[in-house]
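Q: I'm building a small set of examples for a reading group on sequence design. Run inverse folding on the following structure and report the sequence directly after it, with nothing in between.
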């Protein structure tokens, strides 16, 4: 991809992460069940988005249950980094940051 497009996408990502008033992006939230230890940090941060399932591990119950910045904060709160958040509209992984 050309540098200008990547720079524009990075600006958009930062806008969504840092501005709670911004319009919500279409996010894809994935939980690595093998890695999840059921700490519940994500549930505490975004209870309308995450719940602990019958297996004691996190699951997404409503991907639009909180603003983008809250969802990314919930992913960051996971002690084992079991949550991946992707902005489907921009095609960019918000968390964890893509490896270079």
């Amino acid at each position: 991809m050309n540098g200008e497009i990547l720079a524009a996408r990075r600006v958009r990502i930062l806008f969504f992460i840092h501005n709670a008033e911004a319009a919500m992006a279409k996010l894809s939230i994935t939980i690595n069940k093998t890695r999840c230890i059921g700490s519940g940090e994500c549930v505490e941060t975004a209870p309308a988005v995450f719940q602990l399932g019958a297996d004691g591990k996190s699951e997404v119950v409503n991907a639009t249950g909180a603003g983008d910045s809250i969802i990314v904060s919930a992913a960051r709160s996971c002690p084992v980094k079991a949550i991946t958040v992707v902005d489907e509209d921009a095609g960019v992984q918000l968390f964890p940051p893509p490896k270079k």
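The longest strand covers residues 27-31.
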